[in-house]
Specification:
The structure is a homodimer of 338-residue chains.
Chain A (H helix, E strand, L loop, with lengths): L3 H8 L3 H9 L7 H14 L5 H7 L5 E6 L5 H16 L3 E6 L4 H13 L4 E5 L6 H16 L3 E5 L7 E5 L1 H14 L5 E5 L5 H16 L9 E3 L4 H14 L5 E4 L2 H13 L9 E3 L5 H5 L6 E3 L2 H13 L8 E4 L2 E3 L10
The first copy, chain A, binds a DNA duplex (30 and 30 nucleotides) through α2 and α4.
GO molecular function (chains A, B): DNA-binding transcription factor activity; transcription cis-regulatory region binding
Protein name (chains A, B): Transcriptional regulator, LacI family
Organism (chains A, B): Micromonospora matsumotoense
DNA sequence: GGCTGCTAGGAAAGCGCTTACCTATGTGAT
DNA sequence: ATCACATAGGTAAGCGCTTTCCTAGCAGCC
């Protein structure tokens, strides 16, 4: 690897001068020297060593992002927003998949700190686990103490900057619409109960149903894995457990698709006999038949805002932005049968 | 940020000793000293500066990945394989989205070189553009000259290690199956013609049809954008241009879904009147109605193999692994109507 | 022509770490 | 008791870069 010294030697100047030319320093350099340096750079295919640069002038050029899993469409969208803003700021981004393992999340924060990243964005859902939350907060504080910036998306663990989707509002929208269409016997296909995202959505749904005079009873909620199979299984259990069920609320679209699959397998018409609604408005929601009624979260925007907070000027106090949820009406929800 | 020197001072030892206990060096250290160092590390929440470490002992801990777009399910899957292996090797991964912009790809290679990443994995499709290919090869060579490792997935540009999906075989499988089911008037919804992935798939399809005695005529191919809208538009044009068309081959699943949408909008039964096949077997392929017959590519495996090559021992000569494509039969392909 | 005052370029320190090399201590053998 | 040797721990160099500080050279002025 060619070094600055190599370039300087070849150009017949001091490393200081070479550095000044390469970084376009404010200090003026004679044109002939400048040219010689530039030629040497080209000849040697010199690229400055980012680590040495960082050591000499602490100006971080990489940001870290911790998500549950980039290959999940939810995080793929979120990440797109994060990346866009990071790229606009000239930053590279390290993406870490925690696969919903809190321990791994902690490890990654540590590794990112060691990498001296400019900022860490933690995306995903928080956990109902006080011990973990405390340890995470502690690690983040240690990182921030060294000048790092932190922003979280969709989770509450951090006392600083946060961008939140209106999960509870989304649940509320769904509940209200279901009631409006006459549904009373409603089953809920929920994800893992430890995730705050799930409980937030559920809280909104509960509130809307209670306000409408038809409170949700706990035995009509099934906590399952956050994917198709989990959705199908939970839907099956609910169908068996609740006679006369007219609607299924899945707390994300993957589970809703699973529920749809199960209903088709049982030859139950959707929405003729049972309506299904999802959450997140993933691309798949529009592609299935019937197309899913769901709640749209501005994921790209959420990611973009989070990265903007993380990379923009630090605020003296914590900023929390909430981005609205909207109902997307498609075919999978219809009026309740008599 | 606490430094090694801080730790050493607090523990009352030299930086050398502190370094030795922290890195578990082979040199033995007395237990009481070791303990004091460890306590100091804990007290100060010391995390070694990865850049300084890298400068002192050139042992890269980060790898770079360049993809078209992580939020595209194709790359999401690929990336999952890449990440898994990188994580197993204890490496963090920087993911760069080129958004199919060759210029940006080049820039990223440069930035990754500056970051001294241990390896660069270039994923996606190559371009039919000799100038670009040469420039890319040159940049990669410069990077490799500094000890970096390079592997490519799904592209031919690199003289070294490569992992390839059997794109042509996939096209061939589709062609053969179409013929077997009696289809003769076949339209092709292709992606951008500059992508080698597209032309490879097309070549396989062409070969199979030609071997079956029904060569594909060029006016039955429409090059469009690689997404739903492109697929819908191209499908519409083909339907209008080719009377009696009985099958539509889309060169990826997104375009196939677009085609399906268009056919439904025109009330054309699938596969009753027109069959549709896709490529890639993305999750959505199983979710649409009718479920898509498509070609499965082992994407996770492809990514994993590429990262394994990139992180494993260097070979003296280039290794090219081809991973097989398989036909996934679902409902969207039926026999040709009379 | 001699002085001041500026400027372009170089020398060198230092960022945080690892490690080769050296010193001082303790051990065992004689 | 003396010496040789092994060994724990320290000293310092150096990784590649930036930047402060300094020097040498020059122009401009009286």
């Amino acid at each position: 690897m060619a070094t600055l010294a190599d370039v300087a030697r070849r150009a017949g100047v001091s490393p200081a001068t070479a550095s000044r030319v390469i970084n376009g320093s404010s200090k003026p350099v004679a044109d002939n020297l400048r040219e010689r340096v530039l030629r040497a750079v080209a000849d040697l295919r010199y690229v400055p060593n980012a680590h040495a640069q960082l050591l000499a002038r602490p100006q971080r050029s990489v940001v870290g992002v911790v998500v549950h899993d980039v290959s999940d469409p939810y995080f793929a969208e979120l990440t797109r927003g994060l990346q866009r803003v990071a790229t606009d700021h000239g930053r590279l981004v390290i993406i870490c998949n925690s696969y919903r393992d809190p321990e791994r999340e902690l490890e990654y924060v540590e590794m990112l700190r060691a990498q001296q990243v400019a900022a860490i964005v933690l995306a995903g859902s928080g956990y109902h686990d006080a011990t973990f939350t405390a340890r995470l907060a502690e690690k983040l504080a240690a990182y921030e103490a060294t000048g790092g910036r932190v922003a979280v998306v969709g989770r509450h663990e951090h006392p600083g900057d946060a961008v939140m989707p209106a999960n509870a509002d989304g649940g509320r929208l769904l509940g209200a619409e279901l009631l409006r269409q006459g549904h009373r016997r409603i089953g809920v296909v929920a994800g893992p109960q430890v995730l705050t995202t799930i409980t937030d959505r559920l809280d909104g749904l509960r509130a809307a149903l209670a306000e409408g005079g038809h409170p949700l009873s706990e035995e009509r909620i099934r906590y399952a894995d956050f994917d198709r199979d989990g959705g199908a299984r939970a839907a099956g259990e609910l169908l068996d457990a609740v006679p006369g069920l007219t609607a299924l609320v899945a707390l994300n679209d993957s589970m809703a698709v699973g529920a749809l699959t199960l209903l088709r397998a049982r030859d139950i018409p959707v929405p003729g006999q049972v309506s299904v609604v999802g959450f997140d408005d993933m691309p798949v929601a529009a592609d299935v038949t019937p197309a899913l009624t769901t709640v749209r979260l501005p994921l790209v925007e959420l990611g973009a805002r989070a990265m903007t907070l993380a990379l923009g000027p630090a605020a003296d106090r914590s900023r929390v932005e909430v981005l609205p949820a909207t109902l997307v009406v498609r075919d999978s929800l219809g009026p309740a049968p008599d």
